[in-house]
Amino acid sequence: MAIVKDEMGAVVDGATVTVVAEPTVSGSFIAIDKEGETDRYGVVNFSFDDVYKPGQTGVVVVKLKAKQFGKSGEQSVVVEQETTTRVTITIH
After folding, report:
1. In this predicted structure, what is the pLDDT of residue 28?
2. Domain residue spans in the chain?
3. How far apart are the C-alpha atoms of 13 and 15, rounded to whole Å?
4. Any idea which architecture 2-91 has in CATH?
5. Which of 5, 32, 42, 80 has the fewest CB atoms within 10 Å of its CB?
6. 28-58 pLDDT, tens digit each
């Protein structure tokens, strides 16, 4: 789950959020390229069920980028299997 806020701490409705994988080991790359839009609470959810299978171990590092009306922000986060990861992105 990603929450997008502005520099004043208010949630941002309608922000576009993209998620791309960042390689963690040289030559190792998981293809993740997703996009979503925040709801009125500034929240957007992404599922990685297509990347992780039940019982699989490991992590993936993703970069989330949020933008709206010329403002943007980004945050990198580690996503672990079978957990919910929460991240807040502040746009400036």
Report:
1. 60
2. 2-91
3. 6
4. Sandwich (2.60)
5. 80
6. 666 788 999 999 999 999 988 877 777 776 7
